[in-house]
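User: Round two. Same drill as before: sequence, then structure, for each protein.

Assistant: Same drill it is. First protein:
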Amino acid sequence: MNSNQPSFSQPPRPLFGYRKFWAHRFGPAPFLPMSRAEMEALGWDSCDIILVTGDAYIDHPSFGMALIGRLLEAQGFRVGIICQPDWNSAAGFKTLGKPNLFYGVTAGNMDSMVNRYTADRKIRSDDAYTPNAEPNKRPDRTVTVYAQRCREAFPGTPVIVGSIEASLRRIAHYDYWSDKVRRSVLPDSKADLLVFGNAERAIVEVAHRLAKGEKIGDIRDLKGTAFMASPGWLPSDEWEAIDSTSVDTPGPLVKHADPYAMENSQNLPSTVALPGEHAVRIVSREERLAARRDRRAHTVIRLPSYEQVKDDPVLYAHASRTFHLESNPGNARALVQAHGDRDVWLNPPPIPLTTEELDAVYELPYARRPHPAYGEAKIPAWEMIRFSVNIMRGCFGGCTFCSITEHEGRIIQSRSEDSIVREIEEMRDKTPGFTGVVSDLGGPTANMFHLKCKDEKIESSCRRLSCVYPDICENMNTDHSKLISLYRRTRAIKGVKKIQIGSGLRYDLAVRSPEYIKELVTHHVGGYLKIAPEHTEEGVLSKMMKPGIGSYDRFKQLFDRFSREAGKEQYLIPYFIAAHPGTTDTDMLNLALWLKKNNFRLDQVQTFIPTPMALATTMYHSERNPLRKVNRSSEHVGAVRNGRQRKLQKAFLRYHDPANWPLLREALKEMGRADLIGNGKKQLIPAWQPAGTCGASVSPKTRSQAKPPLKRGGHVQHSSPVRRSRPAGK
């Protein structure tokens, strides 16, 4: 493939800088068609692109297929949508005919396994992304099943997979539901191409290149894509492959990469001798940096193969660490991992969208409501976000149990204030039922709007896993003034009575801006604010990459102070996680004592779910700590696998529930803490049991670190699978 050699050091093409496809003359559709009748009403004889999704079709930018569909429509393509088809045959995948260019396949806004199963691997009784919350409308591992059916429907038609399920399964990954390391979704789905992350750039360019007659098998040069390749394949003679063990170097997590330092500079001469002369020319720092960038742009890192990582937890942890170290779009190298007699090739992550591009994507002509085909059916995910607005994407927090970073990246992409105001005005004028209350302004986090590294050179060279752990990086701009300005302007919009911020707040950032907390508490908290300390014990928090409970205490002091000054009675609702890797029963006991001391009685209980590719999932599976260099003697991390122990740790979070008291009494006796059983203020649970409240017992081995086959992935369980912070694009 010499004609399309990857040039990853070049700036990306503007998202809306392509010449529109000829079909743009049809104009935007009221809704992207879901039937042949709708196509005919639009004057279409065929679709150029058909998107297949496991979610109901809601034409709103918080839902990935609507966003991608409208973006491709804006490029001039005729886009149809097939939602939740019967996957038992290919018939449902033929309803719109054969796409002229490709099928685009997604499980929907969530990984299908997280969507369908609880933290205890029990199938959920409802689906928030389905009309009337009806369950069982999508298969397990939806991307794989849908892609296979698309192949059967029209053999030879290109199939491209994407969304969070494909993103998190793009290399060999631990799968909690089958309790084993599974192959990349690419060979299982037999897709031609995988687009990962927020895939606007890649999907738009692929569509235009296919429209010009290029073959899908020749498109190998796009950031944010993955594909199958022949063993040992390289794009050209300029490329070299290096083993992953050569790049995983030890060092303290807090050490920041120097953008001017040279790594492995033995092949980069600092002087050049001129023929016949003794003088030398000093090569400038800029030239050396350019040479370094060029070398990185033509390097692929070979990870241990699927066959190796599935049988060796240490190699799995090493591969996971390497993968996360190569996640910065500014310096990431391509990765390759053998799967049998073929290679899974991952190009570097996509370049984030500019503010202008993000504005344009969110201001496409969305109908902002579910497709009329659903009639009066209620779709819980839609009801949750119908009056909310996405203002940014990405997260630089790096929490190990969360998969947002693996999907959306660490670089924050923010919209402009003007664009957000226009969307609120459109919501006010178009969305039925709007009463003047905007239910949320946010994204993966509530308060990372326009926050970024102070130096673009440092940002492009950084290899830290988090910008805020163990402390906020000195190069991170934590100025909340733009967010304060946004709040003030949006609540002044005619017809808007209140802008609510209910959750997703990064409190360790917020305490850097007391003015922001005052603004938030005075005007935008509706009595309760959900916040996520996740735990109180330092050992557990270090495995989560979360700040110490002291940061929470500082935030609470400011929250309470400004609530009093505003004359409001308001409360924080904290979230905590049970059974996270590295958590002992003693840790959970200490957390329970903290909860009782602070008079918290939790209703929603979160249990760790090991989602694919999250760093905490790596800890769970391998029992190694990938936050440091991994080897055979590296730090051991205990994993809470036994179902009874998971139940015990959840019970500590709900120490006030009488149904949990028998289990907790037995556990406290085994732990030598029977002194906490009684009716005193400093005791955790009473010695008596109310009639009709019988709990389950737990055996001594439950509290050991035994490893029965029960596992899961980097999200946390909630009463509903809708993400607790706020919906995020794709």
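Second protein:
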Amino acid sequence: MSVPAELFSYRKFWAHRFGPAPFLPMSQEEMGELGWDSCDIILVTGDAYVDHASFGMAIVGRLLEAQGFRVGIISQPDWTSTADFKKLGKPNLFFGVSAGNMDSMVNRYTSDRKIRSDDAYTPGGVAGKRPDRSVLVYSQRCQEAYKNVPVIIGGIEASLRRIAHYDYWSDLVRRSVLMDSKADLLVFGNGERQIVEIAHRLSRGEKPEQLTEIRGTAFLRNHIPEGFSVIDSTTIDEPGSEPATKTNPYLYVPGKDSASAADKASGSNLPVQVESPGNESREASGSVYQHPPKVDRAHTVIRLPSFEAVKDDPVLYAHASRVLHLETNPGNARALVQKHGDRELWLNPPAIPLQTQEMDAIYELPFARVPHPSYGDQKIPAFEMIQHSVTIMRGCFGGCTFCSITEHEGRIIQNRSEKSVLREIEKIRDTSKSFSGYISDLGGPTANMYRLACKSREIEAACRRPSCVYPDVCSNLQTDHSSLVNLYRKAREIPGIKKILIASGVRYDIAVKSPEWIKELATHHVGGYLKIAPEHTQEGPLTKMMKPGIGAYDRFKELFDRYSKQAGKEQYLIPYFIAAHPGTTDQDMLDLALWLKANGFRADQVQAFLPSPMATATAMYHSGKNPLRKVTRTSENVSIPRGLTVRRLHKAFLRYHDANNWPILREALRKMGRGDLIGNGKHQLIPAWQPRGTGESEGHRTPHRKSRPASGGVNFRTQHTGLPPGPAMPSARKKKPGNR
């Protein structure tokens, strides 16, 4: 793994003499006030411009400013013409285009493909201020506005659509967004390293077509350059007949020399693999870590099946998804190539994770920490939720198949220093007019992965596991939460801080390895309710999600309840569940509903699985195959809840207490042969009677009776949007935006 240039080591561009702007300009008037005659770089975003480190364009803009470039922002432009794309003039170097903090299709449409009524990243929460497939539209308008100006695309939408991908909203496999946008380069993942190098090299006169070796970027070529070894992906994971001995290319577990000649030649490092009685892959016992065979990874590229092949063959699509996820570790990833017509889509290996000092410097850039003044008094819901929160880390090694965090940010945790986090808390206290002493979150993609890492850098660099915690917590993972406990304690001691809440999602399977952290959390950092995401209770869907069994939740709950009681606090867990995930049957949802009732839970809002681009679960949804295991024509078929009827049923099971769902549940229970669960008994799921004015017509209505709450139940909102956390109190919960 090559050592990249330190992020702030570049010689600053000449315009650094202008110094930092109070806000990055959004108009010619602001540029004039700063003494600028032009912008070097113009960033186009689908979000409102909030100068806060939780907003991607603010981070990119302030980072480029710190490199000496003059950066302007075009926020939520009118895409029906080029007028808004010309309002800052022609950029000297390039346009940087992003849909915003969310994929524009996820932002606008629900999992049932209905149009959302609001947009948390828009002033006033107004919907409709960005186009569908924003990256494509914005890129085309930039090119129309100023020909021959390079266009660099990035952000979550471009990142997760970097190869041929299944698009849920059109129910088609679409080409890479780079092809359709006609952009010059695509930046995937967290883009700081890439965008800084791109900016400096373009400023020195290089052309976009010369920038072919930057990690974390994708571009188009006409042919494979000389000197590269091309490996057909099917030699790594052949999508043919099921072999007698199954192997898993996600793991490098040396032991017996059993890899095929083709595997050895490709340098794919296939492990010895055995099957357990539970049909779950396990590492061969007795293995000792050894170095993988030496290969020239810098001059090796893996050829994925072409766009034309995967769009018509779901099995090949699942195979390509599996191989792509194999090549995501910056320590051992090779370049990927996928033919689109007569062009070669080339994906370099992911960028090297940021070091702590680089993370500190990024988050301590001179953000105003408020929305741009042009919005006046209009509220931006996303900002209202995060303005007093502090990001302490990036990345996630959980690998949940429905989640895009790992695909985008990677599974190697990138941490800020304790001192940097404490300085930001003090800055919030000293500068925010609305601060009342409460920090809403210290977290990131998860609440409790801060400073957790592999015990060996060598093992980490060679590992191909998609998760460090599934099917069990890896023995090489360091799970000591003491650094996080110390951070909490020092943060609480800062004068003027009344309370620090933890709103990011808790990874409870590693939390139980550190009871001290759970005690600290329950004693000091919960506002009555703590969100937690078991997602399901049944093994079938959990194995397809790569989530731990419900037993891990039970162990966490036991510790949380114990420490809450010791602290003299009445506190509750708010579990999130997901409906209609691949691998989920009607029986699974019934069992989950019975678990909810037995535990006194009543969810007042739920969400069905939404197949986001590039996620492993999306490959399951599209192909009906399981890419967590070897994909073949005859390999495991996954049960897929498709269609509005079954998705509504699965959501209805989560809201078994809602009288409007009783008719559909009665019908389903009878078809399943579980009519015994219909009645008024304590152990029955739903009553036989129907309150007047609820449910669908069944030919007659029974006399009106009031619905009664379950005895001892806690009424809560268990909303799974795949997004970062919102406020802690369930009565005030709102959907917090983000990308997952």
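The first strand starts at residue 41 and ends at 45.

User: Perfect.
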